[in-house]
Amino acid sequence: MTSIGDLPEDVLVELFSLLPARDLLRACRLVCTQWRYVVDLTTLWKRKCQREGFYTQNLDRSISDWKVFYMLCSLKRNLIKNPCAEENFQHWKLDNNEGDKWKIEALPGPHGTDMADPNVHKYFVTSYGPCFKSQLITLKKEGYWNELMDEKRPEIVVKDWYAARFDCGCRYELIVRLLSEDYIVLEEFCPEPVVIQQWNDAVWREISHTFQNYPAGVRYIWFQHGGQDTQFWAGWYGIRVTNSSITIGPQTL
């Protein structure tokens, strides 16, 4: 009787490519020397990438480790929770909440414009006093283990969208920090504040930044944005923000 151990390597690769990565690494790889060899094969992880839509032919020469590439692709998602105000202020820490405080409004809002993304329906809006909110992302809780972050240094891509009312000037600020286990700042993205004048186009604009080749030891990502109106009008005439995102993905050569 033929056992699974008698199957040709290419058949084992095809079978194993159907299994979840966690099972391959935590169970199958420990069964025997042959299975460990197959689980470590580049062809297996390349096949899994093909199955799940992560593979394109032009990547062949740019991927140095297909196992890590697969893991990063399968983990990739927006690490900012409640980015579009669909859950009120859940997951956000209100660091500054002055004037008439943060508020949530529906797009396009008074004297505003719609976003290009039809899936975004709401935004957070600031008042005449400083309004800032933040999230702290713990990478280990999100599935990014220490050795992965230290050895592979995957790209960390930050994006945020902001807009003003047509009839009021305002100020927008963003800070993103990569933090160590002890919350020491290892790298920071802190662009100059954006000041928008009164009688503007009210168009939504994206700001983005990619962290690459950052120091080893990144364990947290701290994201903070906000601002205020510059004419100190009572109500909610300040900067509007929504659709924030932080994603971690593989670097290609």
From TrEMBL:
Keyword Transmembrane: no
Occurrences of domain FBA (ranges): 69-250
Keywords in alphabetical order: Ubl conjugation pathway
Listed CDD domains: F-box_FBXO6-like
Gene3D superfamilies: 1.20.1280.50, Galactose-binding domain-like
Pfam families per the UniProt record, alphabetical: F-box-like (PF12937), FBA (PF04300)
SUPFAM superfamilies for the chain: F-box domain, Galactose-binding domain-like
Record has Transmembrane helix as a keyword: no
Entry GO MF terms: ubiquitin protein ligase activity
A GO CC term attached to the entry: SCF ubiquitin ligase complex
Biological process according to GO: ERAD pathway; glycoprotein catabolic process; SCF-dependent proteasomal ubiquitin-dependent protein catabolic process
InterPro entries tied to this protein: F-box-assoc_dom, F-box-like_dom_sf, F-box_dom, F-box_only, Galactose-bd-like_sf
Residue ranges annotated for the F-box domain, each copy included: 1-48
PANTHER family (UniProt xref): F-BOX ONLY PROTEIN 6, F-BOX ONLY PROTEIN 6-LIKE PROTEIN
Protein name: FBX6 protein
Protein encoded by which gene: Fbxo6
